[in-house]
Design a protein that fits this description.
The complex is a heterotrimer.
Chain A (H helix, E strand, L loop, with lengths): L1 H7 L2 H67 L2 H17 L3 H7 L2 H54 L4 H24 L2 H18 L6 H112 L15 H63 L3 H30 L8 E4 H11 L1 H7 L2 E4 L5 E4 L1 H18 L8 E8 L3 E8 L29 H11 L3 E6 L5 E8 L5
Parallel strand pairs in A: 2-4
Antiparallel strand pairs in A: 1-3, 4-5, 5-7, 6-7
Helix pairs in contact in A: 1-8, 2-3, 2-8, 3-5, 5-6, 5-8, 6-7, 7-8, 8-9, 9-10, 13-14
Chain B lengths: L6 E5 L3 H14 L4 E5 L2 H12 L8 E4 L8 H10 L8 E5 L4 H9 L4 E4 L6 H15 L2 H12 L1
Parallel strand pairs in B: 1-2, 1-3, 3-4, 4-5
Helix pairs in contact in B: 1-5, 2-3
Chain C lengths: L3 H5 L25 E6 L6 H11 L2 E6 L2 H10 L6 E5 L3 H7 L2 E2 L1 E2 L11 H5 L15 H4 E2 L5 E2 L5 E2 L2 E13 L26 E4 L5 H11 L13 H16 L3 E5 L2 H9 L5 E4 L1 H9 L4 E3 L6 E11 L4 H14 L3 H7 L8 H4 L5 H7 L9 E2 L5 E3 L10 H6 L1 E4 L6 H13 L1
Parallel strand pairs in C: 1-2, 1-3, 10-11, 10-12, 14-17
Antiparallel strand pairs in C: 3-14, 4-14, 5-8, 6-7, 9-12, 9-13, 9-14, 15-16
């Protein structure tokens, strides 16, 4: 995973990616929480609504009971205020029944419809009860009295007419008549059926007593009054029974059903609200679990991702730190950790690589410096030795001269002076050559394209006199290359080679000869200067390019010429080597690079 | 084979210096015979010859360091490895006063290290003192006895 | 005890057209008499009305209504009806209210065919008489204006439709009992069916169901269950109200559809029942069993009364309608909803052999039998609970009765219902 991150995703992207994913997960958690809480509040609202409604329904049941109580008061006591109270409660209940919103949600419309239906039936029955009650009241309150009063009047008239003779019977009749009313009221008070029988018996008794009298207008009217009385009473009884039945049976049942449905509704609401609560708790706990799960997952993810990101940063950083420490200590061998991406760490890796290159360059230049120091030391040593040598010579001979002079051997002494001069001349020559050597690479080193054919042609021409004097043949082959070099220095190299040839090549048979030829390979032009001398033993082929090194001290020369040639060739990024020639002679092999340093 | 007269071996490439040295040796001790070798290669050949006993051993060797072909250090090292020449005193006589040269020479068991003088008149004095000093040395007796025993 | 809704859906108008010519048409050339019949939904069915009009050539108006409503109407206003059709328990009230007149036996064509149940109270010699107002005790009008079973020339009502009632129970919940042996009114108060029992909302019917139950459970006994004293009523209601408060009863039902709905919804597993309710539940696939209690049935008898105000032409038409009722077709018609007629033999030709055997003889149905609505109400192999007509009426515990304590029981009933 870390490796994948390291290989595929840049540092910035890695960090941004981490934040984005973390943010997305946090957002998701927030969304989940939002959903959970929205649901929670909706459920909570439902519960509140249901509990309020179920409370309403309890009130409803209480109202129903109160209504029936008022209805009974009305029936038994006849208080019309109770009657109207029933109507008021009924209106209130019809308004409050159910609670549409809660009902819709419960899908309990049927229950409400039932409750309403029963309530309506109840009230309808009550209306009928009122009617019957009023009819009964009319019968009882006015007709009973009218009949009873009229009956009493008629009996009293009968007493007046019949006189004292039938007083007993008349009184009996009057008593029976009055008894009718009494028993009727008893019945209406107690609803005891025995009093109906009693009242009817009184009517019958009154009737039979009337039958004892002669038929006259009073007795006829009295019979009629009794008949009306009886029918009023019977009607009152039926009406009483009617409204009793309506109240006790019909209304009671409707009231009970109404309350039952209302209670059922309450129970439904309570159970629904309990169900919702249960659901709510389950929902809440499941959501909480889900949230917890996601949160833990997020934390784990953050931890993992932080770990990975940190790793992906620290691993290369640690490697780089180690590398930089090595590099800072000057190491040129410190390993640069591989890092394929071009991000900040990539830049740092590149910086380390540059650092390493610098260190390598530094080490190279240091080695170069050390080498040149050595060279310088060698140079100084050699120079001091070779410069001292003529001084030693001249001082030595001056000593001899003085000695000879003191002995008076003037002629001998004079002969020695030449030695001193020669030594000083040599010293002068040395100094000039050293100066020349020091100029190589410093002064007059401009390069240009040089046609060696032309350059060496001119050279041969210029040297013709000298060669002729030394009986030395210089052959320059055709097809020499055109090189990019410093003209005078290049010429100097050939001069020095020629000078050496003139000094060292001794070939009695053929005479000294130097042939300059060339060939080329892929990268270099090769110039070969082949002489026909004794050749150079292999062990001296390196040494001859050293400063002041001379193969033969008795041959004139300072031992600087080949050193100068070497230096010039190095300056041209080329080289000069001594090799064995084909016929025992020496070959000075020059190489010039083809890739010209412009 | 051993001669009574003292034979000095001079290894010196410079003709001028050789002439000076021979001159002053003749000047102070005319009885000393000087043999000269011109470069390292000649010196090596001389050493080889002494090994085969064809060559008489010198009494003293004056060895220059700056020599063509083989330098003085190489010659010295070879000499001190040689069975016979190893005991012959070798005086390094060079223009170099470099510590490196001195150390290397002494490490190679050079018996003495003398720098060629650059003052006028001094050259003769130095040669004279070298000769006189080594004349005090009786090492040549060792070679005589050995020679006699051989005979 | 409103039997209307279920029974209203009567059908099969043409089914009994064969009876058409059996009657002399009363209609004179010009005017048709019109009679008003007030009563219950059990018998005041449109198909019956149309059949009667067709058979008799008169105009008939039916005024079906709730029991209390029609009784009040009839007992307070004799001009509001010519004929009144209800239960035997209303007779005392009407007679007392003097809104009906005696019926002359001599004008009843089929009087002699009316069986002994209506005339003597016993369908067979070994039959129990049954407590309460057996119809015969209300039938014959004595010279002093009272009723008794001593035959006279005049009767207070025409005996026609009757049946026995008991309770129905859901056999998928309650283990099926053995008729007349284990099935008992006591089940109404069985603790196991707590909260799932309903009673018909009527003090003169439901009260007896409950009284039978209380006695079966041994909670109390009555000197005469058919005419309880106030003290007995008090004691009975103390027991019942205690049960009600305890939540033993689901409630009371006020109509046959209501009773069906209660059991169909599962709110009730055991309740007072009418025969059509049981049929309806069976039609719905609910295994409602109409119990044959070992204590005996609660029986009821339909009555047809003649208004005191019914005279002349309308009286003639009314007698014709009464005679038509016993002429066969109506008896067969109501047999299909489980009711019996007082002269069954007259109805037999109007029924198939299978119908007769199932409804009257208590034998298994040999073919699918249709109800009055034309739907299959009895599947082959089914047997009517309680057995044959005779067997059922031999086992009468009590007749629906209006007791002397009627008013008092009503006030108590109110307490019971609302407890």
């Amino acid at each position: 995973m870390t490796n994948f991150l390291l290989r595929a995703i840049g540092l910035k992207k890695r960090i941004v990616f981490g934040y984005v994913i973390t943010g997305a997960m946090a957002f998701m958690i927030a969304l989940l929480s939002y959903g959970a809480f929205t649901r929670l509040s909706a459920d909570f609202r439902k519960i509140v609504l249901f509990s309020r409604r179920s409370a309403d329904n309890m009130v409803f049941a209480a109202q129903m009971a109160e209504m029936q109580r008022q209805a009974l008061i009305y029936i038994y006591e006849g208080h019309s205020s109770s009657g109207s109270q029933v109507g008021v409660i009924y209106q209130k209940m019809m308004q409050n029944i159910g609670g549409s919103e809660a009902i819709e949600q419960l899908g309990a419309k049927a229950v409400v419809t039932l409750a309403k239906k029963h309530l309506e039936a109840y009230y309808e029955a009550f209306q009928e009860v009122r009617r019957q009650r009023q009819l009964q009241a009319r019968l009882v309150k006015s007709e009973f009295r009218v009949h009873a009063t009229r009956g009493q009047q008629l009996i009293e008239e009968l007493i007046r007419e019949e006189g004292e003779t039938r007083l007993l019977e008349c009184t009996k009749m009057l008593n029976a008549l009055l008894q009718i009313e009494k028993n009727a009221y008893r019945y209406l008070d107690s609803f005891d059926g025995d009093f109906i029988k009693a009242a009817l018996f009184n009517i019958q008794e009154t009737r039979s007593l009337i039958g004892h009298f002669q038929q006259n207008h009073q007795t006829i009217e009295l019979n009629n009054v009794l008949n009306s009385y009886e029918s009023s009473f019977l009607e009152a009884v039926q009406r009483t029974r009617g409204y009793l039945y309506l109240t006790s049976v019909v209304m009671a049942a409707q009231a009970y059903e109404t309350m039952y449905q209302s209670k059922k509704l309450s129970a439904l609401m309570i159970s629904e609200s309990e169900r919702i609560q249960q659901q709510l708790f389950q929902h809440v706990s499941s959501r909480l679990r889900l949230l917890l799960f996601w949160t833990v997952l997020l934390l784990l993810f953050i931890a993992l991702f932080s770990y990975l990101i940190t790793k992906s940063i620290t691993i290369p950083l640690k490697r780089l730190t180690k590398t930089f420490k090595l590099l800072a200590s000057g190491s040129a061998d410190a390993e640069i950790p591989s890092y394929p991406l071009q991000d900040e760490l990539g830049d740092l890796t590149n910086a380390a690589a540059s650092f390493k290159e610098k260190n390598i360059a530094l080490r190279t230049s240091k080695q170069e410096l050390e080498r040149s120091n050595d060279e310088l030391e060698q140079f100084v040593y050699t120079v001091s030795h070779d410069l001292k040598s003529p001084i030693v010579t001249s001082m030595g001979f001056i000593g001899i001269i003085r000695k000879l002079a003191s002995q008076g051997k003037a002629e001998q002494a004079m002969g020695m002076l030449d030695k001193v001069v020669k030594a000083n001349e040599r010293m002068s020559q040395l100094i000039n050559d050293l100066l020349e050597l020091s100029r190589v690479g410093r002064i007059d080193m401009d390069k240009k394209l040089l046609d060696l054919n032309q350059l060496l042609g001119d050279f041969a021409h210029n040297q013709a006199e000298r060669l002729k004097a030394a009986k030395f043949t210089l052959t320059i082959e055709q097809g020499l290359p055109v090189i990019y070099a410093n003209e005078s220095r290049t010429l100097q190299v050939f001069e020095n080679i020629l000078s050496n040839g003139l000094k060292y090549v001794r070939n009695e048979k053929e005479g000294g000869r130097l042939r300059i030829s060339s060939f080329a390979d892929e990268q270099h032009y090769h110039i070969r200067c082949t002489d026909n001398g004794q050749g150079i033993p292999e062990e001296y082929r390196e040494k001859i390019f050293g400063l002041f090194y001379r193969l033969d001290v008795n041959i004139e020369g300072t031992g600087i010429g080949l050193a100068v040639a070497k230096k010039i060739m190095k300056f041209h990024n080329g080289d000069i080597r001594a090799e064995a020639g084909p016929n025992g002679g020496a070959v000075f092999h020059l190489t010039f690079p083809k890739m010209m340093d412009r | 084979m051993f001669h009574e007269e003292k034979n000095l071996l001079l290894v010196e490439d410079s003709d001028d210096h050789a002439e000076l040295t021979e001159f002053y040796i003749k000047d102070c001790c005319p009885q000393i015979e000087v043999s000269r070798l011109r470069d390292g290669a000649e010196a090596m050949a001389y050493i080889e010859r002494t090994e085969t006993a064809e060559q008489a051993l010198p009494w003293l060797v004056l060895l220059d360091l700056k020599l063509p072909k083989y330098d003085g250090h190489e010659v010295l090292a070879r000499m001190k490895c040689s069975g016979k020449l190893a005991k012959i005193p070798v005086v390094i006589f060079s223009t170099s006063n470099s510590g490196k040269d001195i150390e290397r020479a002494l490490n190679s068991h050079a018996n003495s290290y003398i720098v060629k003088p650059m003052e006028a008149d001094r050259y003769g004095e130095v040669i004279s003192e070298i000769i006189h000093y080594w004349e005090l040395n009786e090492h040549h007796l060792l070679f005589r006895e050995a020679h006699n025993a051989n005979v | 005890m409103n039997r209307r809704t279920f029974l209203q859906q009567s059908g099969k108008l043409g089914a009994a057209a064969l009876a058409a010519t059996a009657f002399p048409r009363l209609a004179k050339a010009t005017s048709k008499p019109t009679i008003k019949v007030v009563g219950t939904h059990v018998t005041l069915l449109e198909s019956i009305r149309q059949q009667a009009e067709h058979d008799l050539g008169i105009n008939i108006e039916f005024y079906p209504g709730g029991d209390a409503e029609v009784l009040l109407k009839a007992s307070t206003d004799p001009t509001s009806f010519d004929l009144y059709e209800q239960w035997s328990n209303s007779i005392k009230v009407l007679w007392q209210a003097k809104t009906i007149q005696p019926i002359d036996i001599r004008r009843l064509t089929y009087w002699d065919e009316i069986n002994s149940l209506s005339k003597t109270g016993r369908i067979s010699d070994k039959a129990k008489l049954g407590l309460g107002d057996a119809p015969c005790n209300l039938l014959f009008i004595q010279p002093d204006g009272s009723f008794s079973c001593v035959p006279t020339e005049h009767i207070s009502f025409l005996p026609y439709v009757h049946n026995v009632d008991s309770f129905g129970y859901n056999a998928s919940v309650i283990p099926q009992g053995i008729p007349y042996e284990t099935e008992s009114w006591g089940w109404l108060l069985d603790e196991r069916w707590h909260g799932k029992v309903a009673i018909i909302n009527s003090p003169e019917i439901g009260l007896f169901d409950l009284a039978l139950a209380v006695r079966a459970k041994g909670l109390m006994d009555f000197k005469n269950m058919g005419n309880m004293s106030r003290e007995e009523v008090d004691k009975l209601f103390d027991i019942l109200i205690a049960h009600k408060r305890d939540g033993h009863f689901r409630g009371v039902w006020t109509s046959v559809p209501h009773s069906v709905e209660l059991m169909a919804s599962g709110e009730v597993v055991l309740e007072s029942m009418f025969s059509p309710g049981v049929s309806a539940l069976n039609g719905m696939g609910i295994p409602c069993i109409y119990a044959a209690p070992k204590e005996g049935y609660r029986a009821w008898h339909g009555v047809m009364c003649l208004s005191r105000a019914c005279t002349d032409e309308r009286q003639e038409a009314a007698y014709a309608f009464m005679n038509w009722w016993l002429s066969g077709w109506p008896g067969a018609f109501i047999a299909r909803q489980g009711y019996y007629i007082s002269n069954p033999q007259r109805s037999r030709p109007f029924m198939s052999q299978a119908e007769w055997e199932y409804w009257y003889e208590g034998k298994p149905a040999t073919e699918p039998l249709q109800g009055t609505d034309g739907k299959i109400s009895v599947r082959p192999g089914e047997v009517r609970t309680g057995g044959s007509y005779i067997k059922r009426f031999e086992n009468i515990a009590i007749w629906n009765t209006v007791m002397d304590t009627y008013e008092y029981t009503m006030t108590k009933w109110n307490e019971f219902v609302l407890a």
